[in-house]
């Protein structure tokens, strides 16, 4: 499981020209689910995402988390994070979780996130999404479980 975190001043997801999720300052989290991932590992990664210190404190150091700041979290499924790019010029998705299983797990992760944090928004699993963001910094981290 991979979570690509981007500290944003704003982010939004649209599907068919309709905004389905948006946040102001906070984190855009692109989530890639791999075969063998489960809810227990997802919850551990989610706890890390919410506690990860990527926001500035009063001295300008990255010592505050999205939970500390009360910023938003925009969760977007992105199976391409599961790609194996080690060989050739075409990515392999053989390690990605099957779509039906990934959809169920993504839904559980979103429910857990909403229970632990607010505000939360999300993309639509499996949809052709357009993601717009203003990366603040830029600050981007890849977390893996």
UniProtKB/TrEMBL annotation:
It is found in: Cytoplasm. One of its GO terms (cellular component) is cytoplasm. A motif (Gly-cisPro motif, important for rejection of L-amino acids) lies at residues 137-138. One of its GO terms (biological process) is D-amino acid catabolic process. GO terms for molecular function: D-tyrosyl-tRNA(Tyr) deacylase activity; Gly-tRNA(Ala) deacylase activity; Ser(Gly)-tRNA(Ala) hydrolase activity; tRNA binding. Signal peptide: none annotated. InterPro entries: Daa-tRNA_deacyls_DTD, DTD-like_sf. Its main location: cytoplasm. Keywords: Cytoplasm, Hydrolase, RNA-binding, tRNA-binding. Belongs to the DTD family. PANTHER family: D-AMINOACYL-TRNA DEACYLASE 1, D-TYROSYL-TRNA TYR DEACYLASE. This is D-aminoacyl-tRNA deacylase. It catalyses: glycyl-tRNA(Ala) + H2O = tRNA(Ala) + glycine + H(+); a D-aminoacyl-tRNA + H2O = a tRNA + a D-alpha-amino acid + H(+). A Gly-cisPro motif from one monomer fits into the active site of the other monomer to allow specific chiral rejection of L-amino acids. The gene is dtd. An aminoacyl-tRNA editing enzyme that deacylates mischarged D-aminoacyl-tRNAs. Also deacylates mischarged glycyl-tRNA(Ala), protecting cells against glycine mischarging by AlaRS. Acts via tRNA-based rather than protein-based catalysis; rejects L-amino acids rather than detecting D-amino acids in the active site. By recycling D-aminoacyl-tRNA to D-amino acids and free tRNA molecules, this enzyme counteracts the toxicity associated with the formation of D-aminoacyl-tRNA entities in vivo and helps enforce protein L-homochirality. It comes from the Bacteria. The keyword ATP-binding does not apply. Homodimer. Pfam families: Tyr_Deacylase.
């Amino acid at each position: 499981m991979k979570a690509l975190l981007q500290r944003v001043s704003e982010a939004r997801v649209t599907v068919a020209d309709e905004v389905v999720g948006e946040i102001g300052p906070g984190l855009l989290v692109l989530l890639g689910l791999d075969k063998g991932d489960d809810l227990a590992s997802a919850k551990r990664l989610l706890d890390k995402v919410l506690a990860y210190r990527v926001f500035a404190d009063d001295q300008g150091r990255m010592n505050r988390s999205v939970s500390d700041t009360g910023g938003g979290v925009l969760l977007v499924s992105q199976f391409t994070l599961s790609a194996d790019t080690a060989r050739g010029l075409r990515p392999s998705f053989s390690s990605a979780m099957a779509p039906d299983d990934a959809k169920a797990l993504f839904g559980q992760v979103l429910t857990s996130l909403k229970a632990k944090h607010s505000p939360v928004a999300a993309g639509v699993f499996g949809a052709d999404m357009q993601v717009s963001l203003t990366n603040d910094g830029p600050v981007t981290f890849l977390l893996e479980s």
